[in-house]
Amino acid sequence: MGASEFVVCVKSEGYEASLEPRKIYRVIEDPKAASKSLLRVVDESGEDYLYPTQFFVPIDIPEEAIAAFPAAT
Predict the structure, then answer these.
(1) Distance between CA atoms of 29 and 33, rounded to whole angstroms?
(2) Which of 16, 37, 41, 57 matches a 20 to 30 Å C-alpha distance to 2?
(3) What is the pLDDT of residue 67?
(4) Please, is 67 exposed, middle or buried when counting C-beta atoms within 10 Å of its C-beta (0-12, 13-18, 19+)?
(5) pTM above 0.90, yes or no
């Protein structure tokens, strides 16, 4: 997985309460997690958690639309 700031969820098996397929999520950079094929995203709880990278596909968001996403803290 590259350094995309946003991803779209393509599956959520086992995490249905936390992830919605076809929804865009903000990525929190976490090199240690990435080395273990995990991706840190801000999920439906509003907190950041680790999920398998294969659950997501990186996407580009137009600059004008980025302000519509809550900032990750």
Answers:
(1) 9
(2) 16
(3) 77
(4) exposed
(5) no
